[in-house]
Design a protein that fits this description.
Strand content: 5-15%
Shape: globular
Largest sheet: 5 strands, mixed
Order of helices and strands: HHEEHEHHHHHEEH
Structural class: alpha+beta
Helix content: 40-55%
Amino acid sequence: MAAARSGLNRFYLILVVIGVAGSAGLAYLSLRRATISIPANVTIEVSDTSGFHGYYLGPDSAPLTVTEYADYECPACQQFMAVQMPTIEERLIATGRVRWRYRDYPLDQHPHARPAAHAAACAEEQGKYWEMNHRIYAWDPQWPFKRDATGIFRDYAKQLGLDVAKYDACMQSARYAARLQASLIEGQRAGVSSTPTFLINGRLYPGGESVHYDMLKALLDSLQGKSSR
């Protein structure tokens, strides 16, 4: 009788262990987010790019527009944004002299480039594009060296005060994949072959060191001198 009771107790103990393990597994699955993938080989519809020509910073009335083709995972792009862009933004964009146009140019060798660009596009839905752009380019932590960086981008969304549920839905939908591809194709047609590359007055300036505050100021001074004659 005692042996039977002992066996019964072991049976119930096993059931309890199985139940706890099963509950833990279900909890893990419920908390785990589906893998986010932003496809490259997509069909571009007119609606994907209609009315969208890039992300702008600065007034329409600025005498000079600079188009930047860049990749979030590109070290030279990151250095440009960290070193050159703050001065350009403060002295030329904020003062109304330059209008900045950003276009995504995700390189095939950078697996995080499209998810990063898509994360910024999702932030744009909530009016925080440039905040997310700058946050991603800070490379803090060093997300380009992570196996999956989408969780870090999600943390950025939280830090910026975005509605995370809306952000998650945007990322899962991959609805801006075609827009990213269209931006890449635009750059290729313009002659872009590396990042960052800048398009100014119909001329391409490749390399992160080719465009800086002094260069842009000299170009602006030259344009204004010509227009005053």
